[in-house]
Amino acid sequence: MLTGTRLTGTRTDRVPASRRRRAAASGLLAAALAGAWIPLVPSPARADDVRARQRGVLNELGMDAAWKITKGRNVTVAVVDSGVDPQQKDIAGSVTVGPNMLAAIDGGSKPAHLHGTGMASLIAGHGHGPGGGDGVIGLAPEAHVLAIRVIGEKEDPSFARYRGSREAEDAVAKGIRYAADHGADVINLSLGKDDEISAERDAIGYAIGKGVVVVSAVGNDGDDERLIDGNGFAPYSYPASYPGVIAVAATQPSHARAPFSNRNLSVMVSAPGAGLPVAGPGDAYFLSDGTSDASALVSGIAALIRAKHPKMAPALVSQALVEGTRFGPQAGYDPDVGFGEVNAPRALAAADSLARARPASAAGKPGAKRFGDADPGPVTIIDRPAWVTPTVAGIILIGVVGVVGSIVIAIAFHRRHPRLLPVGSVPAPAGPPGGGFAPQGRPSYAPYGGVPAGAPNRPVYGPPAPQGPGGASGRPGFGPPGSAPPSAPAGTSADTPRQPGQGASAFAPPDRQGQGASAFAPPDQSGQGTSAFAPPAPSAGGRPSFAAPDGPAPPGGAGHAPPDPASRPSFGAPEEPSGES
Fold first, then answer.
1. What is d(CA 255, CA 271) in angstroms, rounded to the nearest whole number?
2. Domain named Peptidase S8/S53: which ranges (predicted)?
């Protein structure tokens, strides 16, 4: 029976969960086409043909064994649906007609009561005829039905108004609350739609809070490829997908999911839902397919559990149904059939086990007696040693002093050693002409792999200039073998290597013969004499001194002349012996 939604204009309306096959009229059962509502020519059949068609499902669910335990006496199942015909002979005397939540929409017209009557017969049908052997028998044949009309169906004269009316939006929620307030032990909701309704969710929470078991169908869109998502899931249907609801899928005789049954993670358990005989208003019977029928069967088994354990909480009834399933997936659960197909005697046995497991012996006992019969003894007080408190205080004090001392040291260190700026972020201070630590007008260190703008065209760390005729011995510098710096025109700048006879080149190894400046030193600004970074030239005593850069001597030889080498320490290496005496 179709569980889903239909669209009218801009709103969705709940419709009965019905995939029904019209099977017979005038109390006779015959074959029918799936989904058709066309009356067929009845074939000769006895009234107990209906029961014969039920036999396979009754056997699968183990009803003969379950009925030896209970048949659902003193349990009320609310059928919140399209309404029930209380005169149908298979349920006559077992139905209390509740309020019609669509009375304003019906406007005095008589509803068809097709869907609701069929669900009531699967739950609480007692049959008719001698010994009740004819017609439909429900799974809880001694249970009572509370019929509440909350949805319309297409056979109703008021169906068009129902689909276009907003007054029907909260009808299901009102029906659930009415059932919870009027003695329902189980509520069957063989209906659904794709949209959540806050009032309906609240009503279900209200019913479960009052101890009512709520069962609902998961929907019949499982074979509609347009609605299946990338995970193979059909749309979630409500109220089946609300928390606390026992959501039921439909199975085939092979115990596999029926193709039309919704596949998604709301499914808790499953039950037969294909080709079930159901009673209709008057003397009509139908063959029915759908998750609505499966939901009604599970509601019947829940009624049996409630008959055996009237005060069992809804969550435990759910657990008993799950523990009693058969033909479940190997993994324990899947979105096709949930935990498996329900079975009445196994569910009753599971409920018995759950009831025995409850700590009933502690009920009514005072708090001091719930963990044993003996009176509780005195509480043992463990004295704290005298050294604990001062030790803890000392540890805390040491920690505080350490933190404060660390902060003071960090501040002092920061003041003595201020943060140094990165090299090149400020210009180097200018030195005297021809000396200092860097030539004026150029950075201290040229960048790797490039030449600053405006600088002469020469490598920063290139090899020394090759010696011409009559020059130095031509020892290799620090560049690759065979390489030579580019030539420079006359009047070269301070960044240009010296030419032969003008002193050693920049960054070349020191001249062993005393003919030029040391390696790694930039040339002096005038092109004469040693550079700023050159080690001192050997003095007469054979040891280097810190002479001033090459250039004109100051007047009088005073002021900038270095002191006598014999009177000051020397930091240069002694000159290699020349072999002369």
1. 8
2. 72-340
Element (H, E) at 401: helix 388-416
Read off the pLDDT of residues 304-363 as tens digits, 9 standing for 90 and up.
999 999 999 999 999 999 999 999 999 999 999 999 999 999 999 999 999 998 655 555
By annotation, the residues acting in catalysis are: 81, 115, 292
Residue 489 structure tokens: 């025109």
pLDDT mean across residues, the chain: 76
Is 288 within 8 Å of 120 (Cβ atoms)?
no
Q: What is the DSSP letter of 32?
A: -
According to the 3-state scheme, what is the secondary structure of 288-325? EECHHHHHHHHHHHHHHHHHHCCCCCHHHHHHHHHHCC
Residue 93 gets the label, from left (phi > 0), alpha (psi -120 to 50) or beta, of: left
Residue closest to 388 by CA, chosen among 396, 400, 380: 396
- The SS3 of residue 272 is strand
In this structure, the chain runs to a length of: 581
Measured N-to-C along each axis, helices 171-181 and 198-209 cross at an angle, to the nearest 10 degrees, of 10
For the whole model, what pTM was predicted? 0.60
- Provide CB contacts within 8 A for 322, sequence distance 6+: 268, 269, 338, 339
